[in-house]
Fold:
Amino acid sequence: MVLKACLNEAGYAEEIRHTVDIDANWNSDTPPSAAQMTDSLQKALSQNGLNLTVSLYRMYGEGRSAGFELKNPETEEILFSMDIDVNRPIPPTQIYEIEGFRFRGVSPTQMLADKISVISGGKVFRRIKDLVDLYYISKVIAFEKRELLHTLENSKRSLDSFDGFLHHPDKLSHAYEKFRFTGNVDKPPFEEVYCTVKIYIQDILPKKE
Structure:
């Protein structure tokens, strides 16, 4: 939703890939327990009349977010999941609005830094959605290398070698073909997505020797 709102505000009116997952941040003076996080989410849902059951399926750790599943309590069907980063540097945020609904989400620059950090490493093959999102972002948001590096430093993120992205486009293409676009969203050709993103982030890519 943050990406959709960000793109809408920047003038990108086309439909983008759908998602039902939620990313969030948890900040507290002491590291929270699994029970504390689960109970807090469950209480927030109950207070707002949302009849869902929260369960933790992945505990947070170094470089790893906590993972939660939110289920229909009657059928046990998993409706969506939620990833929560714990006690990471608080990211810059801003207010977005979609169809009269206003909410706070991370800034466009933070979103860009997060996604470029992901595709710079080996996770790129499992996170094709970040490659797709960068394709969308490239249409309306200018790439500012200095601002990106500053945002990466402030959020304690780093860039890897981009080895997978640069040297294994065949594996990326295979992962992209398996990635499903739901609804009536057009799936652009892989070559278009890959080349567009490569040109967009060229200032941050390793220089050829």
User: Anything to note?
Assistant: The chain is about 40% helix and 20% strand.
